[in-house]
Design brief:
This protein has 214 residues and is of the alpha+beta class. The chain has 6 helices and 6 strands. The chain has a 6-stranded antiparallel β-sheet. The longest helix has 21 residues. The C terminus is likely disordered. It binds adenosine-5'-triphosphate and magnesium ion.
Length: 214
């Protein structure tokens, strides 16, 4: 029987979509949304911007902990499924997948990625062997929060609406907060809009994965 390690599926465009649960034409939008989801999951306010070549995801959260090796490992496709989120939700698929898809998209398309957090800038280069190279420089202007800059290589299409899923997630996250604060603080069954959005999205991802497995 032919077997191969799971992480190798993240390094080429032919199989990355399978791990991400979207067709190639929506991969860029999904990658940006993974970054935005992480910011929102950290309880932060998130912003996303597209200046043509580069897309920026900025948040005012706690920042990414750890030294350069830890941050490179977080953004490496060979990292084991690790997550600070302790709940595993079957309908959402595997937690700890998001940054592996981000790193895979950069690797598979020959793109670029850097992260500014806690006063340092990390230039990240995912490699075919599953590791990610990192160069560190001071970034005193980015003492708080996390700013991620990503540029996709030519083989990943970047549609005009590449930010659309991210913008919906950001909008619904703030709606969820306001709604929860006003009306749902004491309700045990409260579900924020973002959770509902994610549920809908994960159902799609899950369906795509299930279909792929058949
Ligand atoms: N902007 C951020 N602020 C704070 N922590 C972050 C941020 N981005 C990523 N992290 C940390 O990196 C971890 C890994 O992120 P990743 O997207 O790979 O997995 P996940 O978000 O835990 O699960 P999944 O994306 O599959 O739902 C997160 O669990 C979180 O601890
Ligand atoms: Mg994530």
């Amino acid at each position: 029987m032919f077997t191969r390690e799971d992480w190798t599926l993240f390094r080429s465009l032919g199989t990355l979509g399978q791990k991400a649960g979207v067709p190639l034409r929506r991969l860029a939008a999904l990658v940006v949304k993974e970054l935005v989801d992480n910011a929102l999951d950290a309880g932060a306010a998130a912003q996303v911007e597209n200046d043509g070549d580069w897309i920026y995801v900025v948040d005012d959260g706690p920042g990414l902990p750890g030294d350069a090796a830890a941050i490179a490992s977080l953004f490496s496709i060979k990292r084991p499924l690790t997550s600070s989120k302790m709940v595993r939700v079957p309908s959402r698929g595997a937690l700890g997948n998001g940054l592996r898809v981000v790193a895979g998209a950069v690797l598979a398309s020959g793109g670029s990625l850097f992260v500014e957090t806690r006063g340092q800038r990390f230039d990240l280069t995912p490699r075919d062997d599953g590791s990610t190279d990192v160069e560190v420089t001071p970034a005193p202007g980015h003492a708080t929060g996390t700013r991620i800059s990503i540029r996709f290589g030519d083989t990943i299409p970047v549609p005009h609406d590449v930010l659309s899923w991210s913008e919906i997630a950001i909008a619904m996250a703030s709606m969820g907060k306001a709604y929860k604060a006003r009306w749902l603080t004491s309700s045990p069954s409260s579900a924020t809009s973002r959770k509902l959005l994610r549920l809908g999205w994960s159902a799609r991802r899950y369906r795509a994965r299930s279909l792929g497995a058949r």
